[in-house]
Design goal:
Layout (H helix, E strand, L loop, with lengths): L2 H20 L5 H7 L6 H29 L3 H24 L4 H28 L4 H29 L3 H17 L16 H8 L4 H27 L5 H17 L1 H11 L2 H20 L3 H29 L5 H30 L1 H25 L5 H7 L1
Helix pairs in contact: 1-5, 1-6, 1-7, 2-3, 3-5, 3-9, 3-14, 4-5, 4-7, 5-14, 6-10, 6-11, 6-13, 8-14, 9-10, 9-13, 9-14, 9-15, 10-13, 11-13, 11-16, 12-13, 12-15, 14-15
GO molecular function, one term: transmembrane transporter activity
InterPro entries: MFS, MFS_dom, MFS_trans_sf
Protein name: MFS transporter
């Protein structure tokens, strides 16, 4: 399989995994009620937190196991098929058995533990490809943005059919992921270290990786925030249906998908500093703008701005991981990045949900947007000290 064909296949895998994941978001309150929850905000928060808690715990294990074996494909296939089984059980068991919501959360955790393997290692395989780190991470970004862009409106329409329909669709998508991934040629470096303590060792040897990890944390924090608080905000404040909420989320995800690849290529030419630092600052400001918008139209316009700016910084941040990590540490480095990002998503769900519950939606938007701006401001000395502005040269040479 050629590099271009492999890039397309792997991007399709990433797309399908994200599509399956986001199908559940637009009517998350409807789903948790159908699964036996007594509340909507708290239950929705813990349902999302269970999956991303598993992402945090298992991303590093998948990456270390893959590096140890010197292979990616078998692990992606195993993660995808196990994740498909998890979604299927979530859809089927509550309809035939009277199980407590705590058991639902356990199933959700197991499904997340499997799914993160397929997602993280697919991106790692993109890192293994030649052709420019920004280009490869731009392909990953398009896949992520495309999956989320389509998942939001499609999930909203599936909820109109049944609260369990998104789960069934997600299960089917992950079966397709497993079949597609099995056809991709492994390009994992043959001299990977293969030690399960490699994440800590990688960070110790290359502390600069903590810089993109910090941005990955806060960027995914805002994603977790929108998955829970943003969804309920549109549902309650503007009284939107699950279908309309899905369309509102798509106003962010569509431009986020469309501009990932060209912005990724741009970061290969101009370096990572401007896309990451300036992009993150503007991103935090427009996130706050969504929460302050007095009408649906203005909120929608702000969501489009969030998507465009997010597309500017996301591929550059992922490419920065590739720039900084040694070839034999790519799997572990990307696993660390995804683990920290998943921790950020989890924090966005928990912090956003708690602040919204205690102080209201406006306070929640101010908190999350302010964190994004703060991280960008505090990271300026690190970019200068580590010489990150010169990475554009390395990217062109890759």
């Amino acid at each position: 399989m050629t590099t271009r064909s492999a890039r397309t296949a792997l991007a399709t895998v990433v797309f399908a995994v994200l599509l399956a994941q986001v199908l559940l978001y637009p009517g998350i309150d409807t789903l948790v009620t159908a699964l036996g929850a007594d509340t909507t905000l708290d239950a929705s928060m813990w349902f999302l937190a269970a999956e991303f808690g598993a992402f945090v715990l298992f991303a590093g294990l998948w990456g270390a196991a893959s590096d140890a074996a010197g292979r990616r494909v078998p692990f992606i296939v195993a993660g995808a098929l196990a994740g498909a089984a998890g979604y299927a059980l979530l859809a089927g068991l509550p309809q035939v058995l009277d199980i407590p919501f705590l058991a639902v959360l356990v199933l959700r955790t197991l499904q997340g533990a499997a799914t993160i393997g397929a997602f993280s290692l697919s991106i790692t395989m993109l890192m293994d490809l030649e052709g420019g780190h920004g280009r490869n991470m731009g392909a990953a970004g398009i896949a992520i943005g495309g999956g989320t862009a389509l998942g939001a409106p499609l999930g909203g329409q599936l909820y109109e059919v049944s609260p369990f329909a998104p789960l069934v669709a997600a299960s089917a998508l992950l079966v397709v992921v497993g079949l597609l991934a099995s056809r991709v040629t492994d390009r994992a470096p043959a001299d990977d270290r293969g030690r399960f303590g490699a994440v800590r060792e990688t960070i110790r040897e290359t502390p600069a990786i903590l810089v993109p990890c910090a941005f990955g944390f806060v960027d995914r924090l805002t994603a977790g925030f929108f998955a829970l608080v943003g969804t309920l905000y549109f549902r309650e404040v503007f009284e939107l249906s699950p279908g309309s909420t899905g369309l509102m989320l798509a106003l962010f995800f569509a431009p986020f998908a469309l501009f990932q690849y060209p912005f990724g290529v741009l970061s290969d030419r101009i370096g990572r500093t401007v896309p990451v630092l300036v992009g993150s600052t503007l991103y935090g400001i427009v996130v706050i703008g969504v929460g302050l918008a007095p009408t649906v139209a203005l909120a929608g316009a702000a969501m489009v701005a969030v998507g465009v700016i997010g597309a500017l910084m996301a591929p550059a941040t992922m490419a920065l991981v590739t720039d900084l990590a040694a070839d034999e540490q790519r799997g572990v480095a990307m696993a660390a990045f995804n683990a920290v990002g998943s921790l950020g998503f989890l924090a966005g769900v928990l912090v956003g949900g708690t602040v919204a519950d205690q102080y209201g939606y406006v306070a929640a938007f101010l908190t999350v947007g302010g964190l994004e701006v703060a991280v960008a401001t505090l990271a300026v000395p690190a970019f200068l000290k580590l010489g990150i502005p010169g990475i554009a040269t390395r990217a062109r040479e890759s």
